[in-house]
Amino acid sequence: MFPAIIICLIILGIEFIIGIIANGLIIIVNCTEWIRSRKLTGCDMILTSLGISRFFLQWTIFINNIFFALSPVMNGYCDIWRNLYIVWMYLSTLSLWFATWLSVFYCVKIANFSQPLFLWLKQRISGLMPQLLMGSLLISLVIYFPSVNVIDRKYIDNSMNNLSGNTKVECSHNVNSYSDLILFMLEYSFPFFIFVVSAVLLITSLWRHTKRMEKNTNISRDTITEAHVSVIKGLIAFIFFYISYFMTIVIFLFKIFAHSNLYFIWFCVVVMTAYPSGHSVILILGNPKLKRVAVRALNDAKCWLRVEAS
């Protein structure tokens, strides 16, 4: 069992490094652009916000994993663990909202619909982004606040009940009731629903555009089609990563497989940590500016390694 845990820790370390580098690259590139030109496009604004939230989410997950690994000997730090958990859940919700606005932005800018509301959004979506991003900060707090109270109260009651004599304090979060589960699902379902709707609209637009192209010309792919396909690939990747991340959070918080072996628990941790790093890498590969900087940085790193090796 010990070698398997070592392998999981190595994978977690690799995921952590990739996530920090990927999200750090997004932040640095866009902040440099903002300093130089004194403005950011709507897309870059969302990517920067998403990169910042995931950068801190990556650190929070990493520290939580350390506490999880050391929990038998860390009973005196339950308050720290609880606070880290609160930050973790808030950043998870916030990053989901930012990813949702990114999908909405891509959908409005790329998809072609003639509805007045859609045309109005196409003209004003970039100007609305600062308000939407700031609103996400407040919405995430408001939505998550009831859940924090429930978790905090149960946690303190559980700790107080075990603080007698030499009784060992159990450092856990008792969010295992059906009401807690429903509240937790509602917190994540609304932004994810918006995300799925925008993805469906984008796929519908691609399908309609492809039908028109087949009728009007023999060319099967054009610039608009390529843009649709590129964005849809990113959305599908996000759905895959986020569903796996969401399922592992539910498994952990509600102790669905509380008696499972340690292999399965650490596998869930690896899957959970892959979300903020893997999807950010896909966003970089799908963004020409970020991809160009990443390739240049990778080439510079290779040259530096050759010089150091020689």
Automatic annotation (TrEMBL):
It is a multi-pass membrane protein. It is found in: Membrane. It comes from the Eukaryota. The keyword Cytoplasm does not apply. GO terms for cellular component: membrane. The keyword Metal-binding does not apply. CDD domains: 7tm_TAS2R. Keywords: G-protein coupled receptor, Glycoprotein, Membrane, Receptor, Sensory transduction, Taste, Transducer, Transmembrane, Transmembrane helix. The chain crosses the membrane at residues 6-29, 55-73, 85-108, 128-145, 188-207, 235-257, 263-286. One of its GO terms (molecular function) is G protein-coupled receptor activity. PANTHER family: TASTE RECEPTOR TYPE 2, TASTE RECEPTOR TYPE 2 MEMBER 1. This is Taste receptor type 2.
